[in-house]
Design a protein that fits this description.
globular; 314 residues; alpha+beta; 23% strand; Chloramphenicol Acetyltransferase; seven-stranded mixed beta sheet
């Protein structure tokens, strides 16, 4: 039997892979099983509590109106006009700045705070980036914002939708200290409907306003500049997926300008003519090409990179 197995790889494959039919699906899938010769007394790995066992027939998860309204919000995230630029920078100066501020103030600023401050300083130097196309479909206008109130993705959850994003806004971002931004980000992460009016309003719309009225209310800021400023800040949004360990995430949000970053860690990096292990930060900028062309956007992204790479954030 062993010689037949060795001479015919397909027989060896059949020893460890079997067919099973999934009841009710009319399909067949491959199921890995141990051959008698390769069996061992090891126990099968346990399923973590956070993982749903889907070995049987699919099950319907009960969701409420809040989850369904949240699904519809994705209609705003249309990538048709969006362009993405990516880069990787040496994060050594950023790490030095964080270490120094940790000694001076007892706490290091978060990477999200650093990126938000860099984005705000970029908008100060390039006000042409702080624009959005707003208004009803029959009367679109290009709006120039004078405020620099940057919104950020804050991870919240619904019973049937873990990780639902809530838009928290840091007002006067360019004038705030890194410690102040870090503190407010921590408050937003812990906020509840009891202590945050904006979050309470958002969840109230999701839960209690039926569709399509809830979708219309959520889209009101795209029709009126005053409502955009009140609920979404300025033209800029910061997304911070690095806490989940992602090297790079490219996505689209309803804001015309998004800055994002990946996890900061040591990677191969060219320094002079040598390759060294350096702490680096992947950066992403997504912009609306109706608001600006590739050339101006490239210069704006270069400013953003330079601010972070040199650590000139105070």
């Amino acid at each position: 039997m062993k010689s037949a197995t060795l001479s015919n790889p397909s027989l060896a494959l059949q020893e460890i892979i079997g067919d099973r039919e999934i009841p009710g699906r009319g399909l067949r899938e491959k199921e890995r099983v141990r051959s008698p010769e390769s069996s061992s007394p090891q126990e099968p790995p346990s399923i973590p509590p956070s993982v749903i066992d889907v070995s049987e027939d699919p099950q319907t998860i009960t969701v409420g109106q809040a989850e369904r309204t949240s699904w519809a919000m994705s209609d705003e995230m249309n990538p048709v006009y969006m362009v993405t630029m990516v880069a990787e920078i040496d994060a050594s100066r950023i790490d030095e700045l964080r270490a120094r501020l940790a000694v001076e103030h007892g706490k290091a600023p978060s990477y999200t705070a650093l990126v938000m401050k860099a984005a705000a300083l970029t908008l100060q130097r390039h006000p042409e980036a702080n624009r959005a196309i707003l208004g009803p479909w029959f009367f679109r206008r290009l709006i120039q914002f004078s405020n620099i109130d940057i919104s950020v993705a804050v991870e919240k959850s619904l019973p049937g939708l873990p990780g639902q994003a809530f838009a928290g806004t840091i007002t006067n971002t360019a004038d705030r200290s890194l410690g102040s931004i870090t503190g407010e980000l921590a408050e937003l992460a812990q906020c509840t409907e009891d202590n945050n009016e904006k979050y309470r309003t958002f969840m109230g719309i999701l839960r209690y306003v039926p569709r399509p009225f809830s979708n219309w209310i959520i889209r009101v800021p795209t029709w009126f500049a005053s409502q955009w400023k009140k609920h979404r800040g300025c033209a800029c949004w910061v997304n911070a997926p690095s806490k989940a360990g992602a090297d790079l995430v490219m996505t689209t949000w309803p804001w015309p300008l998004t800055f994002s970053f990946g996890v900061v860690k040591k990677r191969p990096f060219v320094v002079g003519d040598k390759i060294e292990a350096r702490s680096t930060m992947p950066l992403v900028m997504v912009f609306d090409r109706r608001v600006m062309g590739g050339g101006p956007a490239g210069r704006i992204f270069a400013t953003f990179k330079q601010i972070l790479e040199t650590g000139t954030l105070e």
